[in-house]
Design goal:
With about 325 residues, the chain is an alpha/beta fold. The protein has twelve helices and nine strands. The protein has helices at about 15-35, 60-70, 90-100, 120-125, 140-155, 170-180, 200-205, 220, 240-250, 255-260, 280-285, 290-310; strands at about 50-55, 75-80, 105-110, 130, 160-165, 185-190, 210-215, 225-230, 265-270. The strands form two sheets. It has a five-stranded parallel β-sheet with strand order 7-6-5-8-9, covered by helices on one side. A four-stranded parallel β-sheet has the order 2-1-3-4, sandwiched between helices. The chain starts with 16 loop residues before the first helix and ends with a helix. The structure holds phosphoric acid mono(formamide)ester and norvaline (NVA). Phosphoric acid mono(formamide)ester binds near residues 57, 60 and 272.
Length: about 325
Amino acid sequence: PAKAGMKDFLHISDFDKATIMKILDRAAEVKAVIKSGDRAFLPFKGKTMAMIFAKPSMRTRVSFETGFFLLGGHAIYLGPDDIQMGKREETRDVARVLSSYNDIIMARVFAHQNLVKDILDLAKHATVPVINGLTDYNHPCQIIADALTMIEHVGRLEGTKVVYVGDGNNIVHSWLLLAAVIPFHFVCACPKGFEPDAKTVQKAQQAGISKIEITNDPQEAVRGADVVYSDVWASMGQKEEAAHRRQVFQGFQVDENLMKLAGPKAYFMHCLPAERGVEVTDGVIEAPNSIVFPQAENRMHAQNAIMLHALGL
Ligand code: CP
Ligand code: NVA
C-alpha cells in the first residue's frame, strides 16, 4: 500500500473510539511538553509539510505551521493564488508532485466530493498522509480541538450535551461524525432549510451510540447544555448570501438570554472567526464561561497529535 504506516485524516468517522481517544490523550501530553517550554521533543525533525489553502485562514494556517515547527519540522504555506488545485493543474498531478517533496500534506479546499478540486482526490493520489484543514463538507481538526477543550473545561466529552445553534454546516457535520464514534447528546438548532446533510445525520443516528436531535427551536434546545456552540451564518464560499441569511437566521443569535436558558453550567464555544453582534453577542464571547480562546489555542495541540498519528510517530 502506498501509505503503509501512514494515515489520512479526512473525517472523524474514519477512526474508532480508541484511536480518537488516543489522539486526544496525545494532544494533552504534547501540549504539556510545549507549554513547559521544553523544546527537545522534535519528532518532525527533517520533515516537511505542504499546506494548501484555497480559502483564507488565521487559526489553521498559523497553528499548523507553528505546531509543525515547534516539533522540529518545516511547513510551506501555499495560498489561494499558488497551486490553484484543479485549475492551474489537475489535483492528481498536484498530489504526486507534492508527495515527492513533502512528508505530509494539509489542505483547506472548497469541494469535498464530485468536483475536481477535491480533497478525496488529493488523498487518493498522494503517497503521503493528507490532513483535512476544512472543506465545504467538514472540519475534523476543529472538532478534535473542541473535544480536547471540552475534556479540559467540562471534564469529559462522553455523556455531555452539546447544542449547536446556527447553520447546519461543515462544523455540524464534523460534530455529527464525532457522535458516530463517541457517545454524547448532540443537538443542532437551525432555521428550516438550513439543516445539516441528511445522510450525515442518518450516519450519526445509525451508529446508535449518541442522542442526535435536529430542531428549529434554539430556546428549547439549549436547556441543560454543557456547551452552546455557534459559528458564522455564512461560511466561506457563501458570503454573497450573508445579507439574506441574516434575515432568515433571526432568533438564532446566541445572546445572554439564550445562555441564561441554557443554565449555569453551560460553556460557550465558537470555532472562530466570529461576527460579533451577528451569530453571537459581544457579551457572550467575553463572558467568563466563554472558552473560545482556549479552544482556538487547542487547534495547535490537537493537530500536532493528528500529525503524529498520521505519520505513525
Ligand atoms: N477555526 C478556523 O478554522 O479558523 P481559520 O479559518 O482562521 O483557520
Ligand atoms: N463554517 C465556517 C468555519 C470557519 C472556520 C466556514 O466554513 O467558513
